[in-house]
Amino acid sequence: MPLDLMDALRTLPPVLVTACAALGLLVGSFLNVVIHRLPKMMEREWADQCAELKGDAAPKHATYNLIVPRSACPQCGHRISAIENVPVLSWLALRGKCRGCGTRISVRYPLVEALTGALSAYMAWHFGYGAALVGALIFTWAAVALTFIDLDTTLLPDDITLPLIWIGLLFNLTGTFTPLSSAVLGAVAGYMALWLVYWGFKLLTGKEGMGFGDFKLLAAIGAFVGWKVLPFVILASSVVGAIVGVLLIVFARHGRSVPIPFGPYLAAAGIAGLLWGAPITDAWLRNNL
Predict the structure, then answer these.
(1) What is the dihedral sign for C-alpha 231, 236, 237, 239?
(2) Rg over CA atoms, the chain
(3) Which of 207, 216, 225, 272 has the most C-beta neighbours closer than 10 Å?
(4) In the 8-state DSSP scheme, what is residue 276?
(5) Centroid of chain to Cα 79
(6) pTM of the predicted structure, to 2 decimals
(7) Quick one: how far is CA 199 from the chain centroid?
(8) How far apart are CA 225 and CA 273, in angstroms?
């Protein structure tokens, strides 16, 4: 990267914010691929494992990963060209329809791109140039992917949550967001908090109240923000989750036995915790201790 551009990113906040917004739009386009393909890749892996346990030959699959095959319309097979894959603008130019057959393209694709771009820009404005911004962007992008995967499948893939734990700990080796000791305790406490809730609920009701992916996501959040901010994250996610759950049951006739993904609320609370959790927690402690 040219030195003058590096200086501009370091010294001119509008340039940094604009660059991160553009980067976020591009990453958001890739996250749409992750959200769509990663669960399918997991299903194939599970099928292969089941076949192996049964002693059968693994099913033969065409290559399918986050890169191959190229994105195409599921209806007509039209390959998406580069000009048709410009974040947000291509969807608007195509009026939300496939160029090949006119099938509607879900509005969620540009929404994911716009959301990722907006959050990336805000992270740049909030943290400024430095390691904290890099860590915040990685966490935010992972949170967006996990949110929509959980909404679609009620899954929080280990391929995202487990690396996120280690990434949070690595960034906090130098205290980027919180001291390393707090980050380690945050990862442990995050996992154990929901693990205890899970087993307490199961012992009382005989049912599973949440998935193991929620434990790992809260552990990742704890690794980034530290143990002191975890109560804020848990309280915020629980309150919002409870309100949304009640609204879904009352107004959308969502069956009480139908699971409601908790990952989106954890992810949103994790982002809030990364941005404002420490000052809110410190203020509460000063006023109450």
Answers:
(1) positive
(2) 21
(3) 225
(4) I
(5) 27
(6) 0.93
(7) 25
(8) 7
